[in-house]
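To: structure subgroup
Subject: Chain for Friday's discussion

All,

I'm putting the inputs and outputs inline so they're searchable in the archive.
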Amino acid sequence: MRRTPVPARLRSPLVALLAALVAASAVLLGAGSAEAAGYRYWSFWQGNGKNWEYATQGPSLLRPDDGTVQGFRFAVSEDSGDAAQPRRAPDFGTICAGTPAKDGAKRVALVIDPGTAADAPDGEKPPAPRTACARVAPDASSAEALAAVAKPLRYDSSAMLCAISGYPESGCGEQVSGDADSAEPSVPSKTAEDKEEGEGEGEGEGEGDGGPSVGLLVGLGAVLLLGVAAVVQARRRR
């Protein structure tokens, strides 16, 4: 059967529609493959049983009770939702076993994890994770407890914690490009030695491979279906 050419009055709208579809596809696929930028900083955590919870207050504001555990982890992350946890368990009994209770003071266990080489600023090497037990005044803040066992500390003009025990030497919450490697949160009970032995395992596995998400593919499919429907309707009208 001879095919009738598309009338001239319909060609321009169809060309424009196809161009729009191509542009929309590029945007959707590009959004799926792009990686969001992160920030390099010390995150602050509170121990809750055997688990870590991201602190809702800063260390200068939070005043922990006696017998609590506070954690600090240096890493690159986009926000609190994907921040890496300290790689030591929040075990008060173990951390403060050598620090007896004393009248007029409280004990706060601290886990200080400087992170991995992948998260370190250029030219710097992170020190090993460590724990400490701070015995401080009953009304002391988490920042004061940290200062008692991990000097020197460095803050910026907005009171953001920039360095613990002098690490890192410079920088404070700087933005890192999206293609930079970032350490993933570890199991809290995993020791530093276990972490080193397990480095390199499971690379390339998991869902965060940088490909388009299901939502993006569904959106792209919907756009294409609408375009096909418009083309069919236009051909019916000719």
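Points worth raising on Friday:
The helical segments are 8-33, 92-95, 142-149, 192-197, 214-237.
Residues 25-34, 180-211 have pLDDT under 50 and may be disordered.

D.
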